[in-house]
Amino acid sequence: MSGNTESNEIKQSPYKGKLLIDGQWCEAADGCQLERMSPADEHLVAVYAKAGVVDAERAIAAARKAFDKGPWPMMKGAERARILRNVADGILARKHELARMESLENGKPVAQSLAEIEGAADLWQYAATLARNLHGDSYNTLGEATLGVVLRDPIGVVSIITPWNFPFLIVSQKLPFALAAGCTSIVKPAEVTSGTTVMLGEILQEAGIPPGVVNILVGRGSVVGDVMVTHPDVDMLSFTGSTAVGKQAVAKSAATLKKVSMELGGKNPQIVFADCDWDAAVDAAVYGIFFNAGQCCNSGSRILVQDSIAEKFTAAVIERSKHVRVGDPFEAGVQVGAITTDKQMDTILSYVEGARKDGAHIAMGGSRIDRPGMYIEPTVVTGVTRDMAIAKEEVFGPVLAVLTFSTLEEAIDLANSTLYGLSAAIWSKDFNTCMTTARRIKAGTVWVNTFLEGHAELPFGGYRESGIGRELGRLATEDYTETKTLHMHLGPRTDWYVPKS
Ligand code: NAD
Predict the structure, then answer these.
(1) Which of 105, 226, 245, 348 has the most ligand 1 atoms within 8 A of CB, as the residue to mutate?
(2) 189 Cα–ligand 1 center, Å
(3) Dist CA 394 CA 407 (whole Å)
(4) What pLDDT does residue 42 have?
(5) Which are the catalytic amino acids?
(6) Distances from the Cα of 458 to the Cαs of 324, 344, 455, 470, in angstroms?
(7) N or C: which end of the chain has fewer CB within 10 A?
(8) From ligand 1's centre to the CA of 235, what distance in Å?
């Protein structure tokens, strides 16, 4: 079956999504609905029940009850692991359907969506291994009369809020790890890309997740998200999205002192030294900015290139970028799909215009493509200086800013010159150059002679305004726990206040 035929099937019958609250699929209390049109060709993809405040409060109450009354938090790790593996199997069994929905709503190429769905299934499998390995600590070194035991307790009810750029992958970076720890949750995907998260609800039920353990709400951030951030019955907020909304959410959640895990924006440098592996670095520069149409927290949106090779390297990047295939997400061979929302389209174009006004040179692209749907030309901006908005702020689109440096010191200084600190890449064949730079970059992830790799085993998160906390890695479940210390006294207890005579 060709990709286009699959897309046509969905065109004839939009997906119908409901809210999942306490194990039941339901309409919104006020009967409101939300429609999603495809950004690639503007046909109706899905119609959802649109949650409001009442639905959010019901979902939180269900998650609270499922946590306080069990059985999920006290279930054996082995049993939780079995259910998480079932979820992974369920995802793989429906991977083509999930990938199709992701592409219809997000606009990304369907082959890329499929790889993301498979990657997400791997995260559920990995979390299952952690469910059996979560453990505390003990101290037998505190003297004859004392034994110290440190327990890992699931933190409780977790609000999970996700963005539209990698909807299924990002919910899978959070939810399975929260579940592995024994938490219950309310999940809210971005309203424009809710489909795969709602489908995940179906998979979770088939896998054996008890009612109320996962509740799924489709709805607006300012309404549903706000309740999830502020409600006193929520113990933790796990948020991925923009730094601006993330900061507001942290401030609002502080009223009830929730634990927060924040995965936010980035303005990530790829630092290209003169002794780089030329082909690999050119390829990474192109892939790094145009993958997911640049709508990627890890996007390599700044190329910092050593001035001795800058002109030739930029020309090579532009030449290769001309061959990037932009088009319908369901057309074979397309590498860059549609921009996901019209708001994002406007933001990207206004950054290009701003760069032009600031005196930078639009060396390639810069315009909306004249065809139905929302597409932007792959864009390369040169003559950029560190003070320009295009060098400092997250554009979140297929727009590459090229800056130059002369020395290693200057490269490091330039790399660290934004408020963000999510990721960076270094391209050099010299071990000392790579290691010196890697150690001094302020970023949660540094790729050395590679770009955009990710593994379930390796932690991910940001320095500075790119976030708080880490996801993935062997400690991922610990983030969803509280630490409880047991002081256990052995033998007769001495009376401190009134010594016995
Ligand atoms: P966004 O901040 O606009 O929205 C993210 C989520 O927050 C959505 O579900 C939205 O509905 C919700 N939200 C909006 N207002 C809210 C409010 N007042 N209270 C509670 N929730 C609210 O971000 P976006 O445009 O969906 O995603 C793009 C951003 O996400 C970029 O900045 C990108 O860098 C970032 N991102 C970061 C990572 C990471 O791992 N660091 C990964 C992907 C995306």
Answers:
(1) 245
(2) 9
(3) 25
(4) 87
(5) 263, 297
(6) 30, 30, 5, 10
(7) C
(8) 20
